[in-house]
Amino acid sequence: MTTSRRKFIKISALGLGGVAATTSAFNMFGSNSYLNEMVKENITKKLKRTPTYCEVCFWKCAGWTYSDNEGNIQKIIGNETDPHCYGRLCPRGTGGVGMYTDEDRLKTPLIRTTINGEETFKEASWEEALDLIASKFKGIKEKYGAESFALLKHGSPGKHLEHLFKAYGSDTIAEPAYAQCRGAREAGFALTYGSWVGSPEPTDIRDTKCLVLIGSHIGENMHNSQVQEMSDAIDNGATIITVDPRFSTAASKSKHWLAIKPATDIALMLAWINVIIEEGIYDKEYVEKYTTGFNELKDHVLNFTPEWAYGITTIKPEVIRKTAREMANAAPAVIIHPGRHVSWYGDDTQRARAMAILNGILGSWGRRGGFYLKESISVPKYPHPKYPHPKWDWRDIGEKYPMAQMGITTEVIRAAIPSADNKYPVKAMMVAGTNITKSIPEKALLEKAMDELEFMVVMDTMPMDVTGYADVVLPECTYLERYDGIRSATNREPSIAVRVPAVKPKYDSKPGWWVAKQIGERLGLGEFFNYNDYEEVIEWQLKQMGTSLEEMNKIGVKHFPRKSGPLYIEEDKKYEFPTASGKVELYSKELKNLGFDPLPNYTKHPEAPQGFYRLNYGRAPMHTFSRTANNPNLNDLKSENDLWVNPKVARIIGLKTGQKVWLRNQDEIISSFSIKVRVTERVRWDSVYMVHGFGHDNKKLSRAFGKGINDTQMVSKTMIDPIMGGTGMRGNFVEILTENPYKTVEI
Q1: Mind listing the domains of the chain with CATH numbers?
Q2: Residue (of 707, 714, 726, 50) closest to 411 by Cα position
Q3: Angle 378-383-386 (CA atoms, 0-180°, nearest 5)?
Q4: Which tens digits make up the pLDDT trace of 59-71?
Q5: What is the pTM of this model?
């Protein structure tokens, strides 16, 4: 292989033609529920109703897909019995039909080839593509061992391929949702309470009296049930405290907005702990009964006063004291929300620890209005032989991070770059359900790794940027056209939901389970895929759980009684946490034994050079990461991102709202496209802000191409969490360029 072989190439027109499908999701009933219910009922009687759960984001709300007699999907609505959505889908969920109708979808398998000296893609049959992939699987295993074939995945298709890879003998598996998103949170809370927070988070928002959001953008991240419960909590008079350098949607609903200096969250939380302990307003009975290490914590925070924190965070001491007292007054019905995307500054496990400790001394874990005791129901594993034991796996690749509980994406990518000390070489890779060119920082590292691979497969529904690096591109059908695993998630009470295809797959796309089975059978692994259709797997599992696919087709969501005990800790009975001590570990002996601080400490982070601003990014309620920017329904709601700039900065540079600018980061990386300025007081002067997921450079994404800036492109510097390997991405700084740096007319 030559090192120039895997250059990015545009997905050609081959296999990407086709006619757009029928009706938009918003044309039938409208986006609101004010239409006459009788009219709606009469219309829906003419449509077929199929149960599903959403794949547009990770919340996986259960719903009903309505399709007509011609096999066209017309509408998706929420399942009223589902605790993930309470019958109300967010814009992403109702717009999910756009994934199905998008005429830019991948339509047929594609294989990289060279024609007249130029690299391009040719259309291929499934037989040709799968035979090629299987031969590469075999070749990699014979030459290097199965472990050298890695899987980077996300969502439901990733689960099917994970089964394939483990059957093949590789557990070199990772997903951005861990190291680039919530892994540090899970590590921090597990070190304190003995278990992950999980998803959905067991936050008892509906009954809370005080909700504290530290960079947690509920309402923009669209955590559906949490948004609804937060609305109810506000109506019930709950106090909302939002800590954010930006005046977010949540901040606009808050009693207190603390416009904190970025990268100083731990200092604020240490000061809050100082006030709560020094003023004796912590939950003394809870701390005495359920925690260990309080005296060490008290000594630790003695000098972390609000006055000390003021000089770091820019939040006035009286505000720190006032908000700390509000939390204590509401306790135990108080939630310091653990957040979701928390890979920020490289000390993120300790940041999560500070949140967990605050909740601990306020007595909120296992209490009404704080954190309920979650429960789920286990879905039986469909019978298959025992997986072979790999010689090495993701744990070995990430061995220098002792608290890593899943594969670390960047470490797996790094393992693809040959070096003398690389003990765990990755030679081939399959990517499914994740556009890693938009979710993984350090683009130069990623491109170098992909260039070294001997073989790369990408499976997706859309021609995302990452497909341009593949040897084989596989068109996956959307979640509305396939069976997938039974959804069972932690909640107040156990429940399950099913995903049943509402229509046949469009074009020549296929479900992920089918792809995994076809490759597996070609590898001689048929015993691991002992079924003809995934419907058989689901039917068998449901039977073991006391129900059937027939019943689930009628109800969509099935609830089960709690078996683990009550929703909250019973104060008159003994309760043990799943930690080594059986208590909430405010002081972590485990961290101490590993050579880390047993209690959180504030560490000063680099600040922006003269003329630069910290780059902050977030989400929009109608989009999920980069995967929905081209969705025809959701693109109508937001077609590009903009750059939030404080008026003080705008005056200095001479910027106006709507003006096009480019960004250049501290490493001289210039944005591929321009972005429009939004001058607003809603962001601090030392920061700029944009929504993640835009700036696509594949022209086959006809609606998303060239719209806005890809924030990940600007993230060339990362801060790695030494405890669990999380990739902190908020230490990058940008300067604003008012003239086109490419000196040509922008495409």
Answers
A1: 1-44 (no CATH), 110-172+395-476+513-530 (3.40.50.740), 183-374+570-593 (3.40.228.10), 613-737 (2.40.40.20)
A2: 726
A3: 105
A4: 999 999 999 988 8
A5: 0.92
